[in-house]
Amino acid sequence: MEEQGAEDVPVVYLHEVKRQYTQGEKQLIILDGAKLALWPGQSVALVAPSGSGKSTLLHIAGLLESPDEGEVYVGGVPTSQLTDIERTQMRRTDIGFVYQSHRLLPEFTALENVMLPQMIRGLKRSETVKRASEILAYLGLGERIKHRPAELSGGEQQRVAIARAVANAPRALLADEPTGNLDPATADHVFNALMQLVKATRVAMLIATHNMELAGRMDRRVSIVAGKVVELD
Ligand code: ADP
Ligand code: MG
């Protein structure tokens, strides 16, 4: 029997997602029937003003937060009925997340920071060393693996954070303004690293960014308008 191609199913699919926050007496409706499909090997820019719900959308797509209504499918599997353990498991294996600030552990080297998610997943130490070294070298950090985060430049820190996010070979890579703190040349370098990973691994990528030049180099651009995801251009 022929197996159904994984490429026929969105890696992540948000269906009619609603998310609201209570602020004092007010109900803030941030997402209201948002729909978005992320596909293997496709990079999507999420471009929208501050406060419009980009981080909320990324957290929901990354199973870090649950929607109030609607469903998040990962590889076609609805996630709302999963147990906490199952969700955590899925987040670890299927999703990589990169934040605006690197969030690396300061006491650990670059190599150890990239080994950790693999060790948590239960891989043998020797395997994690091998894989972490390979990914860091691939991202141009082969000479920096023994450095602690404080001994790295901003761009290097962010590339280690990307290496950590892809350490478990996720199907989706979600990045929340990953170049927001970097100067233009460094931002370009980090962005190129992300794009290179999409090409090489066919990971589905969603990047929230204010940088229109970078957004223009991605496969697809979306925004958030009145709580819904709209396609740009
Ligand atoms: P963006 O990333 O586009 O700047 P966010 O998703 O962070 O936007 O936030 C969207 C809106 O939701 C903002 O107005 C923010 O203040 C509000 N918000 C976000 N998280 C919470 C929360 N935990 N409690 C209350 N309001 C929140
Ligand atoms: Mg944000």
From TrEMBL:
Pfam families: ABC_tran (PF00005). GO terms for molecular function: ATP binding; ATP hydrolysis activity; transmembrane transporter activity. Keywords: ATP-binding, Cell inner membrane, Cell membrane, Lipoprotein, Membrane, Nucleotide-binding, Translocase, Transport. GO terms for biological process: lipoprotein localization to outer membrane; protein localization to outer membrane. Signal peptide: none annotated. The keyword Cell cycle does not apply. InterPro entries: AAA+_ATPase, ABC_transporter-like_ATP-bd, ABC_transporter-like_CS, ABC_transpr_LolD-like, MacB-like_ATP-bd, P-loop_NTPase. GO terms for cellular component: membrane protein complex; plasma membrane. It comes from the Bacteria. Involved in beta-(1-->2)glucan export. Transmembrane domains (TMD) form a pore in the inner membrane and the ATP-binding domain (NBD) is responsible for energy generation. This is Lipoprotein-releasing system ATP-binding protein LolD. It comes from Bradyrhizobium oligotrophicum S58.
